[in-house]
């Protein structure tokens, strides 16, 4: 496989950092906490339309954060596990990663 088809874990981590910054993940995490508190408040469901909008916003924020968190967890796996995941997706080899 040509070098242009490979990427190091450090490069992936740097790109993930860029995505987190672009998506304002820290702000989304804060929004999630606020929306969860709001949804737990007494009378939240008294206005069903507003409650549905809040819950939809909460779901979108959680989806964005969970995708980033899943990618981060994969980067933190030991090298052989990362290689197995990449092999499954046809993305081998990575610089410096070798199956055990």
Give the proportion of residues in helices.
55-70%
- Proportion of residues in extended strands: under 5%
Question: What fold name goes in the CATH topology slot?
Answer: Methane Monooxygenase Hydroxylase, Chain G, domain 1
Q: Could you say how many structural domains there are in total?
A: 1
Order of helices and strands: HHHH
The CATH superfamily name is Release factor
Q: Termini distance?
A: 20 Å
CATH class: Mainly Alpha
Tell me the overall shape. elongated
CATH architecture: Up-down Bundle
Largest sheet: none
Low-confidence stretches: none
Please tell me how large the radius of gyration is.
19 Å
Instruction: Give the tally of β-strands.
Output: 0
Number of distinct helices: 4
Content-based structural category: mainly alpha
Topology:
Blueprint lengths: L8 H14 L2 H16 L7 H28 L3 H10 L12
Helix pairs in contact: 1-3, 2-3
Task: Spell out the key features of this protein.
100 residues, mainly alpha, Methane Monooxygenase Hydroxylase, Chain G, domain 1, elongated
How would you briefly describe this protein structure?
With 100 residues, this protein is mainly alpha-helical. The protein has helices at residues 9-22, 25-40, 48-75, 79-88.
């Amino acid at each position: 496989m040509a070098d242009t088809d490979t990427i190091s874990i450090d490069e992936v981590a740097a790109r993930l950092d860029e995505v987190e910054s672009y998506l304002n993940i820290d702000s989304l995490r804060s929004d999630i906490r606020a929306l969860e508190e709001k949804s737990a408040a007494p009378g939240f469901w008294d206005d069903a339309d507003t409650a549905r909008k809040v819950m939809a916003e909460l779901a979108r924020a959680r989806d964005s954060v969970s995708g980033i968190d899943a990618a981060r967890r994969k980067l933190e796996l030991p090298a052989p596990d990362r290689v197995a995941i990449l092999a499954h997706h046809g993305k081998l080899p990575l610089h410096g990663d070798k199956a055990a």
